[in-house]
Design a protein that fits this description.
The chain has one helix spanning 2-50. The chain is mainly alpha-helical. The chain is rod-shaped, with a radius of gyration of 22 Å.
Length: 51
């Protein structure tokens, strides 16, 4: 019985790690996009003020 439980727990653990990793990558990508958008607006504003 112990032998049959181990693969099930291993699969659940692996799926949980994959889901957490995908979530973290998604959050990092969203934060990078937001930072790029903010910095892009800042550069545009600074160039616009120079004119």
């Amino acid at each position: 019985m112990e032998q049959s439980k181990r693969p099930v727990l291993h699969r659940i653990k692996r799926k949980f790690i994959i889901i957490i990793t995908a979530f973290m990558l998604g959050m990092a990508n969203g934060m990078h996009t937001e930072d790029a958008r903010i910095k892009g607006n800042q550069n545009y504003t600074e160039q616009h003020k120079k004119d």
